[in-house]
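STRUCTURE:
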């Protein structure tokens, strides 16, 4: 049996004809940039998250970049995030001269540790923005993080690029702070057919500045008040995402059923399984386990026809591009420990039970345990 980490073709098979019909409708309308489909999806997505505003942009990276700049960050300012995330969380702003500072993580959720954040903000000057990452689909401890940041005059932007539909104390992530960034990369829980992203916020000021930044700093046609970018969620992507948004909650429930199967089959093994806090609704964009024998297990599963990945093998502070920041190995012990042990197993809404069982039982076989 072959089991891939993702299977987008199968995931979308039941809405394929609806997607094709919508694509044809947009094609025939002849409106492709910042039209009715984009506005309709922005409205639907902001209503889903529970915010007043949403701004569609070209990618999740652009959502982080435009979101940070909409908070009036400038070169020389600092922002804090975690080192165990995709590099765009840091690079989206560092490329504009805004300096990343890192905070270590909790070993259970893999998210920003509020206690370490509080200690960092007491000693580090110049931090204007905090970017907690809802990694793999598990929400951060947002009440604690926001309270700490308020005390230090620091704004908060959620990196919700992996957490579409996740809940923190029964509230959707993406509406728990000053603003949030989402990605619609194809493999996300809500993904488009190319690149796309969204900024959500309740701040009218942030909303208006983000609108300007995404289209050349334009306040009205041919009137440019600030320098900006060309970063817009196009009509076709928005139209297709509107269809998929209606399926998001049911797809997340299917992911959670798969997780239940994995847990049932693997809870007595040496594998460290994903944690879900009592106050959280984890949407499992990725199903990430931890093992000491990572390379050996990945090789064994590959021989069995099972694809796996590592998200992410090198913490950001140890990447070549950020050597200039002066961090050394050992600076963030939890993030470094996790990065050496994590494996992403296959998970997607259309994954079949026999595929889940095959993966789980192959892991049991690796450890010499009965199925």
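SEQUENCE:
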């Amino acid at each position: 049996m072959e089991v891939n980490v993702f299977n987008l073709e199968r995931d979308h098979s039941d809405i394929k004809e609806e997607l094709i019909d919508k694509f044809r409708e947009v094609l025939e309308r002849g409106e492709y940039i910042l039209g009715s489909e984009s506005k309709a999806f922005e409205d639907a997505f902001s209503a889903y998250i529970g915010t007043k505003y949403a701004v569609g942009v070209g990618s999740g990276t652009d959502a982080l970049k435009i979101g940070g700049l909409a908070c009036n960050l400038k070169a020389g300012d600092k922002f804090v995030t975690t080192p165990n995330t995709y590099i765009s969380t840091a690079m989206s702003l560092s490329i504009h001269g805004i300096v990343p500072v890192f905070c270590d993580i909790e070993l259970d959720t893999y998210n920003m540790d509020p206690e370490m954040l509080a200690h960092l903000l007491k000693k580090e000057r110049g931090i204007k923005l905090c970017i907690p990452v809802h990694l793999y689909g598990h929400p951060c401890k947002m009440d604690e993080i926001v309270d700490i940041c308020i005390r230090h005059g620091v704004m908060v932007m959620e990196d919700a690029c992996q957490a579409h539909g996740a809940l923190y104390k029964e509230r959707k992530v993406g509406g728990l702070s000053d603003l949030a960034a989402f990605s619609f990369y194809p493999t996300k829980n809500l993904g488009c057919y190319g690149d796309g992203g969204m900024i959500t916020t309740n701040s009218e000021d942030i909303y208006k500045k983000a609108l300007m930044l995404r289209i050349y700093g334009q306040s009205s046609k041919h009137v440019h008040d600030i320098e900006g970018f060309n970063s817009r969620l196009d009509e076709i992507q928005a139209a297709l995402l509107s269809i998929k948004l209606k399926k998001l909650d049911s797809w997340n429930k299917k992911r959670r059923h798969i997780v239940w199967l994995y847990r049932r089959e693997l809870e007595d093994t040496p594998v460290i399984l994903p944690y879900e806090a009592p106050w959280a609704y984890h949407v499992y964009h990725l199903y990430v386990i931890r093992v000491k024998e990572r390379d050996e297990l990945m090789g064994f599963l590959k021989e069995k026809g099972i694809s796996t990945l590592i998200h992410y093998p090198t913490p950001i502070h140890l990447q070549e591009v950020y050597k200039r920041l002066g961090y050394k190995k050992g600076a963030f012990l939890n993030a470094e420990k996790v990065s050496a042990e994590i494996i992403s197993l296959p998970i997607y809404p259309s994954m079949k039970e026999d595929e889940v069982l095959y993966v789980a039982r192959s892991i049991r076989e690796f450890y010499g345990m009965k199925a």
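REMARK: The CA atoms of residues 82 and 103 lie 5 Å apart.
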